[in-house]
Amino acid sequence: MSHLLKLPGKGVRPCLKITNANIIELKKIDNEARSKETSKRKLVPLPPNSNEGADQKKKKSSTIASAFNTQARETLDFEIARMFYSAGLPFHLSRNPYFRRAFSYAANNSIPGYQPPGYNKLRTTLLHNERSHVENLLQPIRNTWNQKGVTIVSDGWSDPQRRPLINFMAVTESGPMFLKAVDCSGEVKDREFIAQKIKDVVMEVGPSNVVQIVTDNAAVCKSAGLIIEAEFPNIFWTSCVVHTLNLALKDICAARNTERNNEIFEECRWITQVADDANFIKNFVMLHSMRLSIFNSFNSL
What we know:
The protein has 13 helices and 5 strands. The chain has helices at about 1-5, 20-40, 50-65, 70-85, 95-110, 120-125, 125-140, 145-150, 190-205, 220-230, 240-255, 260-285, 290-300; strands spanning about 150-160, 165-170, 175-185, 210-215, 235-240. A 5-stranded mixed β-sheet has the order 3-2-1-4-5.
């Protein structure tokens, strides 16, 4: 039909043998055919129970939904969920009070044209402002350092990326305060290296404010503590009591049957068996998310 009616943009060439009179006649025939096709169409009836009462109920339901802005709420839920799924965010972020407070503030305050902060603003201006805010909150604790002295506690651990870190905390009667974590990747953690890192923290807190340094019982930490004591006569190195007890319990819970401690093994091997069973149960629960969820639901601690 497009070929005969010479309709442009239909992907076919117009017929050169068709005159204008023929086009008028063909259009008349086409319009009559379209009108007959329309008259043959049947309207689909509404369900039998869609009477006037149902219409009123639907209208009332629509009014309630409009009053509570149900559609907008559902749309926002979808957008937030899509943000989680597309970025791989952990679901427990939804429990973060600051996450919920941010959306609550945005919903209860008219901020036309607002756009959330971008990448650069998050990592520069806002980050610096938040750090200043936290430091202001911690300032009352800092003000007590020169009154009764500070204990610097240090410990080594590995982060989720398996980087070796050494963290430092300042402990006083006013409460503990995290100072910093040092990335030791590619470094030899000998006594000089550890002593230098401790010295940096001592200078940051103030040598006159520091009373003692607490580390674990490793030989390299003990040697580093002696270096600090030699340089700062008013500072004492103290071994960690918790680490000492931990090492003692490891020896008790891992009794070995040798010629020298055969008697000890006979007395303590039941502890070894109990400790092995407890570690097996602990690993089974911790390494399976469903079991861990069940455990947490029944654990009130």
